[in-house]
Amino acid sequence: MRAIQFAAVALGASPLGSPAAAQEPAVTVVALPPMTSPDSGTQGNESLGVAWEATQLIETDLRQTAELMPLSPNRKDYYSYPEVTAPTFSKWRDRGAKGLVTGFVQQRSDGRYTIGCYVYDTEKGRELGRIGFVAARNDLRRAAHKCSGLAYKALTGSPGMFDTRIAYVAETGPPSARVKRIAVMDSDGYDHGYMTAGDTTVLTPRLSPKGGRLAYVTFQGGTPQVRVVDLGSSQQRPLVPGNAMTFAPRYSPDGSQIVFSMMLGANSDIYVVGANGGMPRRLTTAPGIDTDASFSPDGRNIVFESDRSGSQQLYVMNTDGSQQRRITFSQAAYSAPEWSPDGNLIAFTWRFGDTRRIGVIGPDGTHEKQLTAGPADEGPSWAASSRELVFQRTDASGRPGIYRVSLDGSAPRKMTIPQDGSDPNWSGAMD
Amino acid sequence: MRKQILLLAALLAAPAWAQLPGLRARQPAPPAMVQNPLDLLRADFAVQSGGTTIYFTPGSVGLTQQARTILAAQAMWLRQHPEVAVRIEGRGDPTDTRDHALAMGAERSAQVRDYLVLLGIPSAQVTAMTWGKERPGPPSATTTLQELSGPALIPAAG
Lengths: 431, 158
Fold this sequence. Notes:
Strand content of chain A: 35-45%
Shape of chain B: globular
Strand order of the largest sheet of chain B: 1-4-2-3
Oligomer: heterodimer
Number of strands of chain A: 30
Helix content of chain B: 25-40%
Largest sheet of chain B: 4 strands, mixed
Radius of gyration of chain B: 15 Å
Number of helices of chain A: 4
Radius of gyration of chain A: 23 Å
């Protein structure tokens, strides 16, 4: 786990209150005056510079969402320190803003900064939440992401996905000799790094919920097998001992277990094992291929794909393997399901003929909806907000890239990564 | 130390693209200059058994009659060469999803392995793995000879 260099500090007495959830799908306009500073003189100018950087980071975060629309901050609009905690609500109401984010940056004697931010409802004229950090200069970006996350949660009711990580398979080289490496980056594209060297084919990285550990599939031993790596120490180990083929790992919502598939003979079934080891427990016994299992966020159910009916369809079962029930009934194939963090939807890859698309469906099999048009989209993974997904799209020339798509029906957006990418996976919020 | 030697897949008539008129009539290319004894074995295996690649119908793991014919010839050759180990590499469908393709490739290679074992080949002489859709090409399973190894894997008698 990457060391977290900033510490949350209490701001005043009141803890974060219960968020006022704005449930209507309309975009919420958010005022974002430049963050300010109580420092004076040269130190004050420095602090204002840091504060402006943080303001811009928050603006970028909020602008990425489909739910919030920040009013562009103007550096020349000086915002006073007392106004951070006593804003003039009418001023922002008049500009159409329902939400308001204010904040300050203050230098400390140890060279670090105290960073505070506050979220308000301008219509009700009341505070929705506050959060504060002591952070080193190079942790400013993460502190700003935490502020963005607070604003998003307070104004939409959903957890933000700004301080999260995305793992994927970086692909280079010609199609006949593809080099694949596991890559991990922050969801804003920073802190990009490679976890494997590229000498062995690797697949399907899956982050632990808080992003500190990673399970993936490697061909190093000659057959696909799941390995688990600690991203802080880089220590690795096989998920289970032995030579059996293991694949399709996913963490449980609390990170304590990993559900995966194991091939015995010509039969693939679903197993669960402790994230730190132990004896695997078998959950399915049907002939054919049962794979791509994913826990519900309450940890009580598992969705998976099975071709026991003749084609790949989605099934839900209890976490002990009981009460297996089919939820998709269609001539198309349904595969690679992932349960949303809020529990309401299951994302999947829809396949008919050679066309692959991303879709979502309720856990009871209702409210099915396609989010992308294909023709070669696969492998969806949810953002912590449950309102957005990453997936892999292969273009007409056969090159895979990583895209984000929102549930609101807007067009998918390609993410900027240093090379081709496949098998993306999005973590929950980091500590 | 076992080193893996790749065999050139001889073209079979199973997939549609291989049935193009020009391709069907073509004879296999003459073997290149052979220096290594294993290369000789590879070439001999491919010629005697009629091919090293078993093709599958997309979405299917079942062996066709044609596949069984080739595998019977492969088994005959392997019984005559109990000192040679083979590795079956299964491939999934390129348009399948990642993990299902892995499992399909594993099932295909297991079907091939099991049929060879059914024909009397010792299971220790045959290993099976899958590439899923990590190697381009049609759904198939390729039988690959491995370098003559120490006694570890190969039983003394077929």
